[in-house]
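Researcher: Good morning. I'm working through a list of sequences from a screen, and I'd like to move beyond sequence-only analysis. For each chain I'm collecting a predicted structure so we can compare shapes side by side. This is the next one on the list. No need for commentary yet; just the structure.
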Amino acid sequence: MEKVGHNYKREKPNFKPDVIIIGSGIGALTAAAILAKEANKRVLILEQHYTAGGFTHVFKRKDYEWDVGIHYIGEVHNPKSALARICSYVSDGGMKWAEMPHVYDRIVIADKVYDFPAGKDNLIAALKGYFPNDHEAIDKYFKIVIEFSKTVTPYFMEKVLPPVARFFVGNKLKKPFLAYSDKTTKEVLDGITDNAELKAVLSAQFGDYGLAPAESSFAIHATVAKHYFRGGAYPLGGSSIIAATIEKVIEKAGGAIYTGASVNEILIKNNRAYGVKMDDGNVYEAPIIISNAGALITYNDLIPDSYPKKQSIAKQVNQTEASLSHVSLYIGLKHTAKELGIHGANYWVYPNNDYDTTIKEYAKNPDAELPVAYISFPSAKNPLFEEEYPGKATIEIVSFAPWDWFAQWDGTRWHHRGEDYEALKEKITQRLLEPLYKHVPQVEGKIDFMELSTPLSTKHFSRYKQGEIYGLTHTPARFRQDILKPQSPVKGLYLSGQDVVTVGFGGAMMGGVLAAAAILKKNVMKNILK
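Model: Good morning. Structure tokens for this chain:
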């Protein structure tokens, strides 16, 4: 694992930046690299966590390593895709990808298994094999997803237009997209088929955006579904290479990343952002400030109370709630993935096909059925894992967990939260192990290390108020929020990351692209796609 960034507590920035970015997630890193390459901007990235990369970072325990957010990514293994070209551009070709197995997602509903193979035609054929009486509905679903995908670029293009252009053509650019985003995933699927099992299979990847079909916008569902039509890939060498390779591009232009550098406030004068104040009282100034901390944190916490327009801005963004929080069980084994017969496909395990009801019941009663268990095998996805960790393998299991279950321990220190907290973690851990042992029985009795992270962990490293992993929730209303664009109402202050576009690596990265485009007032994708 390559060290990224300078330790702010040991050394302070010693250059005058052209741009300051709050947070070091992929949106921040992308914006910084584009500004460095397109305009030779010296970018200062300030990250409050001890390591850089946001949800692309990794952590180590007892000679094991796990990612915290990069479980698999679509499109990057297709060199002609826009996402692959952006990754190559911002890392100077440093990011490499290992394609996952042909079956990249395995959907388990009760005792039925549905494999998702890579390739749209392969997936269609597989689904028609599972549902021989629903061919017409399956064709209709894929047609709708493809038709929707044509509306995405104009919708996000509108976000970077100057006000005058937006006034004349904004609605025209957004309208086709909104026709889909205004509907929930359930509404669209209900219009395609009455087969509850088919609808459950088609929406089974909803954990990738954290909202069940009755509440999620069809726009986010279709975006994620299409994203994986070609299958999935994993960073070659682990997800830490993402920040490490982009850092080199930032440093070439004289910029730098600082970790353990917590920003307390964005400084504003005469409706213009001009700097940041750190938790230690130090002030750093630049004509351009980008917040990658998320819309809720930026507008509620980082903008000072003395700013006259704060209440009206915060009121707008607070109309959209934070997304769901989660728990993640990190497992280490003293056996290789090959020895264990693990091939890298993700498991999505559900007790039944009524996702909405199961999640609601679980939120009310932690003893109810576990609504979903996402099981990932990072060591099996990374061909270089055994070079650094010989004889080892890793597993991650993720599920939803309401913030309310953990709120009473908010503000307490890690490893000092008491017996009740540890008992709750142990209970959740054992529940997560049940689907693992059922569907991957060969690992039972072979676990060497386990650690459960809770929403408190997510809050600690991301500062999200309720430990949410996906920023703002992806409801239909979210996509009508005009404030969710890179140019903030404050001059000189911009937003990047997943709240500007959508959830996930690709969405957050595109948030960085849009932020850079808005700042430079140019189509930065033109050079990226060359």
